[in-house]
Amino acid sequence: MRNKASLHNSWGFTYCLPDTPLGDLTLSFSARGLAVLTYGKPETGLTSASPPPAMAAWLEAVKKELAAYFSGTPTTFASLPLDPKGTPFQLRVWQELRKIPWGAAISYKELAARAGSPRGFRAVGQANGANPIPIIIPCHRVINADGSLGGYSSGLERKRWLLRHEGLSF
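User: That's the sequence. What structure does it adopt?
Assistant: Structure tokens below.
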């Protein structure tokens, strides 16, 4: 499997959003919406060209929603066009993640049940780790059944920061 950062090379437009509270964020868009969000600047794939008109509107919407999120305004990102690529199971898990509200956390086991695979908590953990659009598809809101953080593909410090930002104690 390719790492998330290498995915930026295959999309229509890539933009680096600088200086967020979690550092730079790289956003890549397909013809259908935001496809990938990664932490940091990409080594390749950025262009100085303006995005196509539809992508320009999407980029502005993503920037506005992320600015609101980072300023402490609860948001669901529901108005953003997203185009994550994954298996049918991953897409189902990511859809369930979007239903977890700001300031809430659920266990991998609970997420597995919500996704229709009550015993598939390990598979849910793998789908969580493969989430190409963290923050917006809030995989950080899934924790271990014992209340501990669990994993986060972009690092536990970022997960802890996101959960604390949303008012949870970790």
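The chain is about 30% helix and 15% strand.
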